[in-house]
Design brief:
The chain is of the alpha/beta class and about 375 residues long. Helix 1 crosses helix 2 and helix 4 crosses helix 5. The protein is built from 12 helices and 15 strands. About 35% of the residues lie in helices and about 25% in strands. Helix 9 links the parallel strand 12 and strand 13. It has a 7-stranded mixed β-sheet, with helices on both faces. Strands 1-2-6-5-4-3 form a 6-stranded mixed β-sheet. The chain folds into 2 domains: about 160 residues, no CATH class; about 220 residues, Vaccinia Virus protein VP39 (Rossmann fold).
């Protein structure tokens, strides 16, 4: 019990506490005050910036409006004018500044807290019924707790994604991502796997390393590969993939295995879509985007030769955004491939079409505008 984080505060002159829940593993705030509809947005913003959390006792919808007001104040926060004009940051500096700003924004917005009852009900006026969303993300209730409103809104958004699904043209059906599992909204990488010519000796088996939602395993199965072994080390991802493959009636073709990277044995086709940026994730969902020191990329390349059948191919699906941001030069990637005893048979490129490509206000716009997503066809040298 001592390992369960708790949050403490004073209310009506009495000391109170509750279990603290944070999916990102954030520690409970040390300073907590009670807040309600009488608190102004300016006061709430000042307290949140100072690191004081606000445990909400007012109307739920007013809490949502307050969170939006806090976000507006963060986004328009005045910056101290520089006496000397600062030089334009390099792409790498722009990336790190952007990440720092995102982290600070998240810290401030996470200061608005909500109470939850035993069954995930929120004891506030006009509070929605969030029991299903919480059950999907948290599992069975474990008692009353306190969590941030921002986290709850993420749960609600994930519940809507899971309910409605994401249209995948390559499948002609939808994939339903679960909470904490990356949604395949960037369809260009799915299209690469759907359209790339299968290896000449490809027949009956493929491995999908880091399957996530199961979308690429499903594409391979739909392309006629008799048996697909899809791996992931995240139980949430495997549960999500299992659900999607059953919906698509492909669960008889795809076996799911909880391992880090490769399953036992060899296959004539092995594919992997690792996280694209070598940086540290700040939340569970960011593990699909950020790969510290390119750990998964290095692991896939380093183990590929030992798991490929003679004459087989490894398909690495990778964005070059890290190159445009100065985080991982092309020469470093080529050196990894060479050191792993591999050779490049070919490469298929596609231009991403997501909205940020054309958003000139994005701090990383120049890099995103130049980005290509590629399917690298690799073989044993």
């Amino acid at each position: 019990m001592n390992d369960i984080p708790t949050i403490s505060w004073i209310e009506a002159g009495q000391s109170r506490s509750a279990r603290w829940h944070s999916e990102n593993g954030a520690p409970p705030p040390k300073r907590v005050v009670i807040a309600d509809d009488q608190m102004s947005a300016d006061s709430a913003y000042r307290l949140a910036c100072e690191g004081t959390a606000l445990l909400w006792r007012g109307d739920f919808q007013n809490a949502r409006q307050l969170l939006q007001a806090l976000a507006r104040r963060i986004d328009r926060a005045p910056r101290k004018p520089a006496k000397i004009a600062a030089p334009t940051p390099s792409p790498t500096e722009a990336f790190h500044l952007h990440r720092q700003a995102q982290a600070q924004r998240a810290r401030v917005l996470a200061m608005l807290l909500l109470p939850f009852e035993q069954d995930f009900r929120i004891p506030l006026r006009r509070a929605p019924d969030v029991r299903q969303a919480c059950n999907e993300a948290y599992g069975a209730p474990a008692g009353p707790f306190v969590a941030s409103l921002r986290e709850l809104l993420g749960l609600i958004g994930a519940h809507e994604w899971r309910k409605n699904g994401v249209d995948i043209p390559a499948l002609g059906q939808r994939i339903h991502p679960h909470y904490g599992v990356f949604s395949p909204v960037r369809g260009e990488y799915v299209g690469l796997v759907a359209d790339a010519p299968l290896p000449a000796m490809q027949a009956s088996l493929a491995f999908d390393i880091g399957t996530g939602s199961g979308v690429l395993a499903a594409v391979l199965a739909r392309r006629g590969i008799k048996d697909v072994v899809a791996t992931d080390q995240d139980p949430r991802a495997l549960a999500c993939a299992r659900d999607n493959l059953a919906r698509l009636k492909l669960d008889h073709q795809v076996a799911l295995l909880q391992v880090d990277l490769f399953p036992p044995g060899r296959a004539p086709l092995i594919i992997c879509n690792p996280p694209w940026l070598p940086a540290r994730p700040s939340s569970a969902i960011e593990h699909a985007i950020y790969d510290p020191d390119s750990r998964m990329l290095r692991g896939f390349l380093g183990g590929l030769a030992a798991h490929l059948e003679p004459g087989g191919e490894g398909w690495l699906i990778l964005s070059d955004l890290a190159e445009h941001l100065g985080l991982r030069p092309r020469a470093e990637l080529m050196a990894m491939i060479d050191a792993a005893g591999l050779k490049v048979l070919g490469r298929i490129d596609v231009k991403p079409q997501h909205p940020k490509v054309s958003d000139a206000s994005d701090p990383l716009h120049a890099a995103r505008a130049a980005e290509l997503t590629s399917l690298w066809r690799l073989a044993v040298a």
